[in-house]
Amino acid sequence: MEYPPVYADGIKITKVKNLTGPDITGKFGLDWVDLGCVTRCPDGRSLYVFGDSFSGKNWGDNWRSPTALWSKTRVLERGVTFSGAVGGVPAAQLIPYEHGEEISTIIPSDVITIGDTIYLHAVVNQGFGNVIWSGIWTSTDNGATWQDSGARFPGDAYDKMWNLCTWELGDDGWVYVYTAEFLRESPMILHRVRPQDLTNPDAWEPWGRDGDTWRWGAGPDTVVDDIIGEMSLRKLGKRWVFTWFDGPHYRIDAMVLDHPTQDLRQTERVTLLHGSGWGNQDTNHVAQLYGSYVIPGSTLDDLHLTVSQWNTGDNSIYHVMQYRFQGLDRRL
Q1: What is the pLDDT of residues 287-298, one digit of tens each?
Q2: What is the pLDDT of residues 88-125, one digit of tens each?
Q3: 188 contacts 161 by C-beta, under 8 angstroms
Q4: Closest CA to 249 of 276, 267, 268
Q5: Residue 269 half-sphere exposure, CB side, CA atoms within 13 Å?
Q6: Is 83 helix (H, G, I), strand (E, B) or coil?
Q7: Is the dihedral of CA 262, 268, 272, 278 positive or negative?
Q8: What are phi and psi of 202, to 5 degrees?
């Protein structure tokens, strides 16, 4: 069912469309996918990277993760469409491994393009939720092929808060990285790193308390008290937007920042989408929602996100949707 746009907290909220599903992306061998973190490729296309992906009549068949689709869409309000799949048809798993006892699945957390290289950060599970390490893979051909950079972030580092990441390059030449526990059970911490050192975990500088002040090289200390799930940090114009899934409150929230180092505990946040039951959905109340990744081409006044939804009761719905939020710049 489609619902009309609504206004909430001064923001116009629209569900643009379903981006994936058997009748939409099944032609790429991706009937059932989630997440959809996204970056602009060097060649101008956008690359959408998905988590656990399946094809065929039954949810769970032909398991791959991560997978990816390209899009040439630039007019976001018309709805994103996909032009091709990485690896052809059916879409291939980006990272070569077998889903088994050694590695059960590798889940993407974010992608970023710097120069001619795309960097993919992903979380390696040995049994879902048992993170043994996270790593970074790179592509210099717009996502067509991937190489393991060798970067390893131990699963238990910083009380497991080095598992899941989102990152963005600032005008000052630093990449700022928020990270949290994979299982939505922790706040988050902040690091910065130079682009040329992105795949060297030892070069990541933590942000933390030094007495009554904060500085680089201290900590890392948690920068929020909230429990952080899937997240997306992007610089839009002169400001930054941070969106995340708030599991305990069952919603997707956003903050607009002047800089990632500002006091997030004192920063206003707004709820973009509320969770709901399956029988109580409307435009901004979505059953079993999660994810939330900024789509390239967004502005603070016209923000587009990929949002996931999974009916865990019968697996009848497991897809990615596109939502539009207008007026966030005037609200925050």
Answers
A1: 999 999 999 999
A2: 999 999 999 999 999 999 999 999 999 999 999 999 99
A3: yes
A4: 276
A5: 19
A6: coil
A7: positive
A8: -65, -20
